[in-house]
Design a protein that fits this description.
Elements (H helix, E strand, L loop, with lengths): L1 H26 L16 E4 L3 E4 L4 E4 L2 E4 L16 E7 L1 H4 L9 H12 L5 E4 L7 H15 L3 E5 L20 H5 L1 H10 L15 H17 L3 E7 L8 H4 L6 H19 L3 E4 L17 H17 L6
Parallel strand pairs: 5-6, 5-7, 7-8, 8-9
Antiparallel strand pairs: 1-2, 3-4
Helix pairs in contact: 3-10, 4-7, 7-9
Length: 318
């Protein structure tokens, strides 16, 4: 009997310790994340085609900023304003708007820029999802493009394609349910699946030849429903801290700027597709939150560059 009581006491104490650790991790914002991205697993929902989507109509906090998602799990006003959709923007966390408020993302500022020149031009839909690669972009172009039928589709990828985390190309799969629900189990899952030594020799999540094929397939999907694809390169802030790389997120600036941006420019030439480059000296402490994520001012400059190019291409018309 005494032995049974000791077993029960130890079990209760261990359970209390586990609960305390779980609470401490959640309060400290150390909940489980999706791979090497900044996506909290709590906001990711498994999806057969895309690997995961964000919670439809949910309120999420990402990059320290809370936002309410629409019925499609995208960062847009809900309910949506009346009127047609003129521009669809697909991309990763920089399109979603890491660390900036709803009205400060470049899709939102692009819509404001267009409306001052063409009030009847229609809406701009932000379909950026943190952690997405060109693989998910092709699926999005096929699905959202055919549903929304926008005149223009802006495509901005490369950040997650270039990750050296050893993940296979394609849809990113979510960890088991327990690892998604528990901060402690999620941390343990991340530790058990961390890359070993020599990660710098790992194959990028999307090797450059596949990245090129994905971009060309994406362009084809947009043209299939009559849209005009526009490619966008967002650069890497020179001389700024890169907390992601410091935390072992397996990212190399040279790969993004040389391999992936260069391949995007090549696809633009081969496919006769408009290209907007926001790279170089203008990405500094006044326009970037860190080496990767633009600030509100950085998003404004991206929006202006896109707006001017769309206008030059004759795409800012009712």
């Amino acid at each position: 009997m005494r032995a049974l009581r000791w077993v029960l006491l130890v079990a209760v104490a261990l359970g209390a310790l586990l609960v305390a650790v779980e609470i401490a991790l959640r309060i400290g914002g150390a909940g489980p994340r999706l791979g090497y991205s900044d996506v909290p697993l709590g906001i990711a929902v498994p999806d057969r085609a895309l690997g995961y989507v964000l919670s439809p109509s949910g309120t999420v906090s990402f990059g320290g900023v809370a936002t309410h998602l629409d019925a499609n799990g995208l960062r847009n006003p809900s309910p949506p304003p009346d009127g047609p959709i003129s521009v669809l923007v697909i991309g990763d966390e920089r399109t979603f708007g890491w660390g900036v408020a709803d009205g400060e993302t470049y899709p939102a500022q692009l819509e404001a820029w267009i409306r001052t020149r063409c009030p009847t031009c229609g809406r701009v839909v932000n379909a950026g999802v943190p952690g997405y690669t060109t693989y998910q972009g092709v699926v999005q172009a096929r699905d959202l493009g055919n549903r929304f039928r926008p005149k223009t589709v802006i495509v901005a990828f490369g950040l997650n394609d270039a990750l050296l985390d050893g993940a296979q190309a394609g849809a990113t799969t979510l960890p088991p349910p327990l690892a998604r629900a528990s901060a402690m189990a999620g941390r343990l899952y991340e530790w058990l699946h961390r890359p070993g030594t020599g990660w710098w020799d790992a194959v990028p999540r999307t090797p450059v030849p596949r990245f090129s094929r994905n971009l060309r397939a994406l362009v084809s999907e947009v043209r299939r429903f009559g849209g005009v694809p526009v490619l966008l390169n967002i650069g890497y802030g020179a001389g700024l801290p890169d907390p992601g790389a410091d935390a072992g997120k397996r990212l190399r600036r040279g790969r993004i700027e040389d391999d992936y941006h260069g391949e995007t420019r090549l696809v633009s030439e081969l496919e006769y597709t408009p290209l907007v480059d926001v790279v170089g000296a203008e990405l500094d402490a006044t326009t970037m939150l860190d080496a990767i994520h633009p600030s509100a001012e950085g998003h404004r400059r991206i929006a202006v560059a896109l707006g001017e190019r769309l206008a030059a291409e004759g795409l800012v018309t009712p």
